[in-house]
Amino acid sequence: MEPEKPDQAGWEYKPKSPADSAYPAANDPLPQIQKPASGSVSWTAHEYIAHEHGSRWYLGLVLLSLASSSLMYLLTRDYFATGSVVAVGVIVGLFATRKPKEITYELSESGLQIGEKSYPYSSFQSFSLISEGGISSVSLTPLKRFMPPISIYFTPADQTKIVSVLGNYLPHDERSLDSVERLTRRLRF
User: How many CA atoms are closer than 13 Å to the CA of 122, on its beta-carbon side?
Assistant: First the structure.
């Protein structure tokens, strides 16, 4: 009996037939992506929805931060954890004062362009339409685990063009806002 050579595998996977395999064979042609009938679409919109925060909102943020940091100190007796809660409250307050920038969006054959950043369609799993009152947006679900969804805002007049271009490259997925998104909408953040 001859010993097995280290560079040879002890087994090899061979499906019964190409139909039994869940994945396409190496020699199968790749599916062709349809080109959009309307070409590319570009528009300008805010990067996110700006909510007006009055003095009551900021007072509530200060009270919540103080209560949370006090509770953290009582539970842990740790100054670092307590300071971290206060720092998060300050960061949220500073971010709430920031006004959204106007950004140029473009959907073309090569992918999504948001300002200077480009995203190929292959980095997204699907897209969803989300309506927030009178403002519509598309949420793009990424394939990468730790990449957050990308929201792009537009006017209702552009919705048909945007959905038709995206529909040529990505599947449409019906979804609603998740719990974190609903909380941020409720807190007007």
Answer: 2
